[in-house]
Amino acid sequence: MDSITVALPKGRMADKSFEVFASCGISENIQNEMSRKLFICDIERNLKFILVKPTDVPTYVEHGAADIGVCGKDVLLELKRDCYEVLDLGFGKCKMVVAGPTNKKNTFLSNKRVATKFPSIAEEFYKKKGENVEIIKLNGSVELAPLVGLSEVIVDIVETGTTLRENGLTVYEEIFPSSARLIVNKASMKTKSDRIKEIIYKLKQATERSYIKSHYRVQEYMEL
User: Fold this and answer.
1) What residues contact 186, with CB distance under 8 A and at least 6 apart?
2) Neighbours of 129 (CB within 10 A)
3) Are 178 and 73 a contacting pair, CB within 8 Å?
4) What's the CA gap between 49 and 51, in Å, rounded?
């Protein structure tokens, strides 16, 4: 049986990733070991899980240090790593948006400054719109930028929008929806095809079951 290395993002997405793997019978008892370790082995199934920064997952997969990985669609579009995106896992849902001060939502500026952690996404978005903007790359809380005059708007990922509202900001435009995706190293897809396809199939079944349960819960709520 081929050995498979799985790169998972640290944090909440790692917890959810393990839940999905466990729900389809892959490494059910591994999650308890992950808190203090950088990698975790499932000897019985010949699987190794490595925990890395979310933005590093595609790099590990592209260069073959991991055969498969889990990361957000936003990370994939920003980094443009050379690997296969094979499955939408259906969790970690959020949106990439343009946001700014609520009281300036309808103000148009031809040469606006855009603060963001996602410069490639922001640049491509405004290029398609034909707008001339200055992209300012930040690593911290981008919500601060329009509040102190560093930028007019921000491009950022939002889940509920609570942080935006608390800082007097609002969504101007939605760029794209994002969620957790399963990615595969291109060479591994050829050399370990049967094993990887088996994992993809099991994860696909698990995500479909999760969707059906969620769908029924919504229907039941609406019928109350």
Assistant:
1) 82, 83, 84
2) 11
3) yes
4) 7
Prediction pTM value = 0.86
Distance between CA atoms of 70 and 26, rounded to whole angstroms?
A: 15
Evaluate the CA torsion angle 182, 186, 192, 194 in order and state its sign: positive
SS3 call for 152: coil
Span 1-7, average pLDDT: 89
Nearest to 49 by CA among 91, 4, 13: 4
Query: What are phi and psi for residue 207, nearest 5 degrees?
Result: -70, -35
- For residues 57 and 11, the answer to whether their CB atoms sit within 8 Å is no
Give the Cα separation of 110 and 131 in Å (integer): 7
- Rounded distance between C-alpha atoms, residue 120 and residue 80, angstroms: 9
Tokens read off for 112: 């606006």
- 5-37: per-residue pLDDT in tens? 999 998 888 888 888 888 877 776 666 666 667
